[in-house]
Task: inverse folding
């Protein structure tokens, strides 16, 4: 395999829709962790060690734990101090709390670290996924407030557990196993290839060097509640695919941490910890549902009573996205302006050119809104690079990519071309430019629509709004579409986010995916209240 082909294969493997790690091999590595922890259960607080290990694994703190760096070498001091706080306490690094809800049930939250755009670190309460709640909730409840779970000696034991050779129990000696480094990076790998997790949420969970499309997150906007909900369900998917498979194989005993009768935690005998527990989902509080899972609460002492308050929400991602109602209003006003213009038959030559330019700019704006092209690269279609205006190829950041044109936009382009031909015939003008739609200056010379001219045109009708907003709006529409629901990979394809090996030449192999994208594109005109407009 050549170097370029190998790069293309690697790009596809790490893109949304790639293959997750093998379930059997990953479960084998997980069993080895429990096997090592069971060896320590008689001599140390292995429950704390295991819970902290699961927390570090879930939150990707173990990703580079085995990689030695000349400047920074992992030591036992790299293991953080985890401890329980009250539900009213501030959210800080490595804190845990049990939040009680109005229905009497409770849920465990951990502090999730977020690096903002301006490189500030903030923390938000993130609910533990369903698959681990049966372990974390009773464990956190058994801990004292504001007391570290591990001493320095126990941190060293956990450090040794991570670094020592993991051995298989005799029962699974013939099972394959992933490499330790792959296992430690399991959650990160799942995030990278997850086809349901949005690019914006991925950007909050992954370092920049592991983002497949670094700028894709800049086109989306989500608030804290939406991000927390996405992460909650995503983490549960990654764990459930392992635990369900392990349960089907009857591996429950091998994924259980057992204690002797003398083993105690906080003066209470600790029951065996089993990683597989199907009953956990039956006790989900009403607040931890699909619609409310992202809401984070804290208790605040008012007088002598604790009152529940909702944490402040933060918006992440694009700052350019407008409310859809504003986009609808902009195009409604443009529609009214065109309709109110004098009939083309009665216009003077100058007025006819102005009317044509109005319609050409209208088509250009529709083109950006309904295809998501970059207005700084592709504002019109080359006359030689389309297929009956159903599909077209454009040059986008130096790369040729294909776009699909929805039925409404195709019809508007055909209406415009009719107007263009009438203008050329009536005023004896030429159209030597390669672009399907363009402008005419006062002397009747054809000039291309530029990013600057289109920006000025839109600013006159919507001050402060630039055409690039329409590309952001297209991306947000794709991410929030329900019928059809698009995958992250499909959104990347529509937005032109791709690496070598992910571009032209493969879409035709997946007609159902192409049909789904076309269904989404054809839904946009109705979503934005666009009406058929005959220019002539």
Result:
């Amino acid at each position: 395999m050549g170097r370029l082909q190998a790069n293309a294969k690697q790009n596809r493997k790490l893109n949304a829709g790639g293959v997750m790690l093998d379930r059997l091999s990953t479960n084998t590595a997980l069993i080895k962790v429990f096997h090592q922890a069971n060896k320590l259960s008689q001599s140390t607080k292995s429950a704390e060690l295991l819970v902290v290990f699961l927390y570090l694994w879930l939150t990707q703190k173990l990703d580079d734990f085995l990689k030695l760096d000349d400047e920074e070498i992992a030591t036992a001091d790299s293991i953080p101090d985890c401890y329980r706080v009250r539900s009213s306490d501030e959210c800080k690094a490595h804190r845990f709390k049990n939040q009680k809800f109005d229905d009497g049930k409770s849920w465990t939250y951990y502090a999730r670290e977020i690096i903002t755009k301006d490189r500030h670190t903030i923390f938000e309460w993130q609910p533990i996924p369903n698959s681990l709640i049966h372990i974390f909730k009773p464990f956190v409840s058994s801990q004292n407030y504001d007391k570290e779970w591990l001493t320095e000696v126990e941190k060293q034991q956990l450090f040794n557990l991570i670094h020592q050779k993991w051995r298989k129990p005799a029962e699974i000696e013939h099972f394959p196993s992933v490499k330790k480094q792959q296992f430690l990076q399991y959650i990160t790998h799942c995030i990278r290839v997850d086809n349901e997790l949005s690019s914006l949420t991925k950007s909050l969970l992954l370092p920049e060097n592991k983002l497949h499309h670094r700028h894709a997150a800049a086109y989306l906007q989500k608030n804290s509640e939406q991000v927390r909900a996405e992460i909650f369900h995503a983490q549960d998917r990654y764990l459930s695919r392992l635990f369900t498979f392990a349960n089907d194989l009857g591996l429950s005993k091998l994924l259980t941490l057992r204690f002797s009768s003398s083993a105690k935690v906080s003066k209470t005998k600790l029951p065996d910890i089993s990683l597989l527990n199907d009953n956990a989902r039956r006790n989900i509080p009403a607040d931890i549902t699909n619609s409310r899972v992202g809401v984070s609460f804290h208790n605040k002492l008012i007088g002598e009573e604790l009152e529940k308050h909702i944490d402040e929400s933060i918006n992440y991602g694009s700052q350019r996205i407008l409310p859809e109602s504003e986009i609808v209003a902009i195009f409604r006003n443009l529609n009214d302006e065109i309709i109110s213009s004098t009939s083309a038959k009665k216009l003077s030559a100058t007025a006819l050119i102005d009317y044509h330019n109005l319609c050409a700019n209208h088509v250009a704006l529709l083109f950006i809104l309904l295809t998501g092209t970059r207005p700084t690269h592709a504002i019109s279609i080359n006359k030689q690079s389309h297929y009956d205006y159903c599909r077209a190829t454009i040059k986008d950041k130096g790369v040729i990519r294909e776009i699909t044109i929805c039925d409404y936009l195709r019809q508007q382009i055909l209406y415009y071309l009719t107007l263009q031909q009438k203008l050329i015939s009536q005023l004896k003008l030429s159209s030597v430019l390669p672009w399907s739609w363009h402008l005419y200056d006062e002397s009747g010379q054809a000039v291309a629509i530029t990013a600057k001219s289109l920006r000025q045109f839109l600013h006159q009708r919507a001050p402060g709004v630039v055409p690039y907003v329409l590309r952001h709006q297209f991306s947000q529409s794709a991410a929030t579409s329900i019928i059809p629901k698009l995958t992250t990979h499909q959104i990347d394809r529509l937005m032109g986010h791709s690496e070598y090996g992910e571009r032209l030449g493969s879409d035709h192999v997946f007609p159902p995916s192409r049909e789904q994208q076309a269904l989404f594109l054809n839904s946009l005109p109705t979503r934005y209240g666009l009406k058929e407009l005959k220019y002539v």
The radius of gyration is 29 Å.
